[in-house]
Design brief:
- The complex is a heterodimer of chains A (296) and B (378).
- Chain A has 296 residues and is of the alpha/beta class.
- Chain A has helices spanning 28-41, 77-87, 99-105, 107-116, 161-168, 181-192, 219-229, 264-276; strands at 49-53, 68-71, 92-98, 121-126, 172-177, 198-203, 230-232, 249-256.
- Chain A has a single domain, classed as 3-Layer(aba) Sandwich (Rossmann fold), CATH 3.40.50.970.
- Chain A has an eight-stranded mixed beta sheet with strand order 2-1-3-4-6-5-8-7, with helices on both faces.
- In chain A, helix 1 packs across helix 6 (181-192), helix 3 packs across helix 4 and helix 4 packs across helix 5 (161-168).
- Chain A is globular.
- Chain A starts with 27 loop residues before the first helix and ends in a 20-residue tail after the last helix.
- Helices cover 37% and strands 22% of the residues of chain B.
- Chain B has two domains: 6-190, Thiamin diphosphate (ThDP)-binding fold, Pyr/PP domains (Rossmann fold), CATH 3.40.50; 268-377, 3-Layer(aba) Sandwich (Rossmann fold).
- The chains are: A alpha/beta (296), B alpha/beta (378).
- Chain A binds chain B through residues 14, 17, 47-48, 50, 52, 62-63, 65-73, 75-76, 78-88, 90-91, 108-109, 112, 264, 268-269, 271-272, 274-276, 279-280, and chain B through 27, 29, 48-49, 51-55, 57-59, 61-63, 65-75, 77, 91-92, 95, 219, 221-232, 239-240.
């Protein structure tokens, strides 16, 4: 047996920061790997990709990337990214954060950036709870689920993220899981070459603070749940994407209408151009180069 | 581009906007709030014409985070708000402080607490400007008292933010924001504009390794520096480190880079203080009736003078301490129930009498009110 002391995508990582903080069985590592693979497939220059996060387990992703990265405050990755992207429309700006961060505390920024069509790629890791703080209920926790702050079961109804994103105006909406890493990577690659507010929800597993209180004590148990219950259905109505225990989970690409839709950045800089004409040079990021459809 | 040299007639809010554009501000994110809204309106109209971006965000938290992002994107950036919005921004001010992001926030103070009196003057955000975010940190706050100073101190605010990589707050008040006065716009070449220092080389680059002046160079994005910026306690590499020693090193430097340069930063103005026995300490709109009161006092043969706190933070302790040897009474006139008076008392340290002349908000002091206090102190 041959051992290697490096990984082929180490070049994208600050390897001197490893090992990472994530628990055994956590899904974030697989999603991070899919992200790097997707970025590679998209053939974008990592130096031109800026990754922004908020707070939480997923919020720690940027700290491991050997790129220009920002770990901001809780819930505020999107408005930070909005300012960054407006200042540098030539950069790919990726928001990589968790469900609690992006649609609970940061929910307002999420819907407004979608409405405005800010040119951001949002990778939203949904582990159904607040993992870092010990497993409290969030806006994505399924009804009835046990968490540390819903010891008798969650009384609330969770957000259906694809539906929320679509309703708010996101131009690219997909959902994958930490099990469907190959399709996730392709989706990320594809989304890199779309423009506008793009949301990829990734269902993940959190055995430490969520799974073990909900009859899925090991990471593999939640992956089995995804294997047995996920149905890939492209262009499904996002309304049907609600996650209800005991029912099938729809995954796939729901929305892809980014061609021809002007982004807020384009509008804002075109306004500048209207006044200053050729006196100002505005670099926008490069266009489509990736296959349009995700292969089977 | 920015206004051509000459004399203009404008409001305090407009003068801040024009000062910002003059200083090179090319990004504004804000949320409507009385009495600062005209500032955002002016920026919305002006920025696209000078090659800048205006965005109205969904709230004040979004506004300040957007300017922090834009600043890292390389643009000089600002927001404007009033008390309620300023309260919402506090967490992010701490984030800008720990990440050493140059930003400018104009807080047009109105009468509080809470919604208070939105269209009436207040000066109740003085302590919040310094201590509003959690944890130990330092910021800079300037306080103009005329429309001309709104223009001039805004340029200074941007210069200080860029030089020290720190949030700078323009502590305005409602009365000044809506006051129309003459503003002289100088020639570009007569004004010093400071830009953040950039790293000299990518080789062995450490994003949070400070130079001898305690300020680290700020790397641009997209050029292969591969730097990480975090609100967590971090070492010189920018890596999160949950370690009391690293915390000590970082927090000391964040505070000391301002404290050690306090003399350079502090720019206060005095009026008739040379032989004064009574010092009125005021800032913002209150400076105006205070000057009148001192003129009246002098006409009665009373040796009174004024200390105008144009720089409120860092607080000019040394200057107050020096005057404490010369005057017998300090009268602190502010539109709140006692904030900056605490710093004056601390600096005076028992060497002279310190009297608070408060106003709860809604109106500025009249010259007679200040004169009465001077007469009383005589």
């Amino acid at each position: 047996m041959e051992f290697v002391d490096h990984h082929i995508r180490d070049k994208y990582l600050k390897v001197d920061r490893l090992p990472h903080i994530w628990c055994p069985g956590c899904g974030i590592g697989s999603i991070l790997n899919a992200f790097l693979l997707g970025m590679e497939k998209a053939e974008v220059d990592p130096d031109q990709v800026i990754v922004v996060s908020g707070i939480g387990c997923t919020g720690r992703v940027p700290g491991y990337l050997n790129m220009d990265t920002f770990h901001t405050t809780h819930g505020r990755a999107i408005p930070f990214a909005v300012g960054l992207k407006l200042a540098r429309p030539d950069m790919h700006v990726v928001v990589f954060s968790g469900d609690g961060d992006l649609v609970t505390i940061g929910g307002n920024h999420f819907i407004h950036a979608a409405r405005r069509n800010n040119d951001l790629l949002v990778i939203l890791v949904n582990n159904f709870n607040y993992g870092m703080t010990g497993g409290q209920v969030g806006a994505t926790t399924p009804t009835g689920a046990i968490t540390t702050t819903t010891p008798y079961g969650n009384l609330e109804r969770p957000f259906n993220i694809p539906y929320l994103a679509a309703a708010a105006g996101a131009v690219y909406v997909a959902r994958w899981t930490s099990l469907h890493v190959r399709r996730l990577a392709w989706s990320i690659a594809e989304a890199f070459h779309r423009k506008g507010f793009r949301v990829i929800e990734v269902l993940s597993q959190c055995p430490t603070t969520f799974g073990r209180r909900n009859k899925m004590p090991e990471g593999i148990d939640m992956l089995r749940w995804y294997r047995d219950n996920c149905v890939i259905q492209h262009y499904a109505d996002p309304k049907d994407a609600e996650i209800v225990p005991g029912r099938k989970i729809i995954i796939g690409k729901f929305i892809d209408i980014t061609d021809g839709v002007e982004t807020f950045e384009e509008k804002a800089w075109n306004l500048v151009r209207k006044f200053l004409g050729d006196r100002i040079e505005i670099p926008f990021r490069k266009g489509l180069r990736c296959p349009k459809e995700i292969p089977g | 581009m920015s206004l051509s040299p000459g004399i203009y007639f404008m409001s305090g809010n407009s003068a801040v906007a024009e000062g910002a554009i003059f200083a090179g501000c090319r990004f504004f994110a804000g949320y409507p709030i009385t009495p600062s809204s005209e500032l955002a309106e002016r920026m919305a109209a002006r920025l696209p014409r000078v090659g800048g971006i205006f965005i109205q965000m969904e709230d004040e938290i979004g506004s300040i985070m957007a300017i922090i992002g834009a600043s890292w994107g390389g643009l000089k950036a600002m927001t404007a708000t009033s008390g309620p919005g300023f309260s919402l921004m506090q967490e992010s001010i701490g984030f800008a402080a720990i990440t050493e992001t140059p930003i400018v926030i104009c807080d047009v103070q109105r009468a509080g607490p809470s919604t208070g009196m939105p269209t009436y003057v207040g000066q109740g955000d003085v302590m919040q400007a310094k201590w509003g975010s959690h944890g130990p940190y330092e910021i800079i706050a300037v306080s103009p008292s005329s429309v001309q100073e709104c223009f001039d101190l805004t340029i200074r605010a941007f210069n200080l933010a860029e030089k020290y990589r720190v949030p700078v707050i323009i502590l305005m008040d409602e009365r000044l924001s809506h006051l129309y006065e003459k503003v002289r716009v100088p020639r570009k070449e007569d004004v010093i504009i400071v830009n953040r220092k950039l790293p000299k080389s990518k080789k062995n680059f450490l994003p949070y390794l400070a130079d001898a002046d305690l300020i680290p160079p700020m790397p641009p994005i997209g050029e292969g520096y591969h730097f990480h910026v975090t609100g967590l306690t971090h070492d010189e590499r920018g890596y999160p480190k949950i370690d009391p020693e690293v915390q000590d090193r970082l927090v000391r430097r964040l505070c000391d880079k301002i404290r050690y340069h306090a003399d350079e930063i502090i720019d206060i103005q005095t009026y008739m203080m040379d032989n004064a026995k009574i010092a009125v300490v005021a800032f913002g709109s209150v400076v105006r009736p205070a000057i009148k009161a001192i003129k009246l006092a002098r006409s009665k043969g009373i040796k009174a003078g004024l200390i105008n706190l144009r720089t409120i933070w860092p607080f000019p302790e040394k200057i107050i301490r020096e005057y404490a040897e010369k005057v017998h009474t300090f009268i602190v006139a502010e539109i709140n129930y006692g904030q900056i008076v605490h710093k004056v008392r601390e600096s005076v340290n028992g060497k002279a009498k310190v009297v608070l002349l408060p106003k709860m908000g809604g109106a500025i002091h009249t010259p007679e009110e200040i004169l009465n206090e001077i007469m009383e102190a005589r």
